[in-house]
Design goal:
By secondary structure, the protein is of the alpha+beta class. The chain contains 17 helices and ten strands. The protein has a three-stranded antiparallel sheet with strand order 2-6-5. The longest helix is centred in the last third of the chain and has 43 residues. It is globular, with a radius of gyration of 24 Å. It starts with 18 loop residues before the first strand and ends in a 6-residue tail after the last helix.
Amino acid sequence: MPDTQLDMDQLSGALRRETVKKNVAAIHISGKLTLLQRKLSNVLLLNAYDALTSAQTHTIDARTLAMMVGYNSNDFDTLRASLRALAETVAEWDMLDEQGRQEWGVSSLLSFAKLKAGVCEYAYSPALAQKLYDPKIYALINVQIQRNFSSGHGLALYENCYRFVRTGSTGWWALDVFRKLMGVDGSDYYGSFKHLNAKIIKPAVAEVNKSSDILIEPEFKKKGRTVTDIRFLIKGNPQKAMFEIDDGDGVRNLKIYKTLREQGVSDRLARQWIAEHGEDYVQQKLDYVSGQGGIKSTLGYLSAALRDDYRAPENETAPEPSPEAVEAAREREVEKAQEDQAYEARASERAERSRKLAIVEDLVSRRNPTQRDADKRLFLAGLNNDLDREHFRAHGWRSGLNATAIFAFWLDMEPDAFE
């Protein structure tokens, strides 16, 4: 489904907060969830959190729920399939607190869910609700940032690293623990560190660094020549403002934003400047630049003024930046424009892939159990190597590694499926 722009101004109550306190137990629970199921579980928790232990059931407008996880708001078939998957998921957690103490438990992820008259009603089991609500150990998961992720492993790694952003490191995890967090425990293929590193760790790290407000770097501990433990060094992403600022904050309705756009500043850069410097500072520099004469590049001059805090001394005229400084600022603007184009291209590609995968889920949901088994066997027979087959067995029709082959398979089955 297309990744629709989410207008937070249309939301109410807990949904306007954008972040959900997600207990460490819940983060560990969701290791085996698909990307869409993980996003859905976060939004449901955000909606229910304030009344998690006091109310037996929770409700949310179905169209709002669909939009917040990136579905088309009319795609109730996909929404039903994802809710069904959450209700059928047996969640086993192994809770780790800051002192390293453990608590094991098991529960269905949702005790029930139903759609009626455009409203989704759902509930958690009492035991799981207590774990989800426990305020002692939690991570703030930004439901806007999670929309940037295109893989479940990337989002799982982000969730498990984000709570350690203030300490700068996750601490050491045994590889068996890490495999559980990523949902690949029990796989012989990922029992090999070579395969785990190439197919899980490196791609997930790359996506976290590209798509979120933190930057992470893995480190490994060895016993002899064997890798036994992993940890992640964590720091804030210097481009954090790009992820935190959304039209839901009203940025695009600000007068300063509209003035910047009139000056030729791109949407993304205008929001970034407002986020980094604040409205007053940006307005000061706009006023300063408008008072200067003979400027060849207003955009480059404004960029330099914001960066170097140009201001006119009392009774003096501030010197115009050197041609080199203006040219350097102009080059940076060109680079940012190129980055914007590349970002939009990646976003479009992710949206198209998500749209097709959602259609595949819908097609599968319409098949009876016998047909589904036959479809899987037929698809597996057409795969050429063990890695592709293992990835499909682990992830089913959500296997990103086999996305191209999956789309081709269902196109043969349903020629008009993706139109």
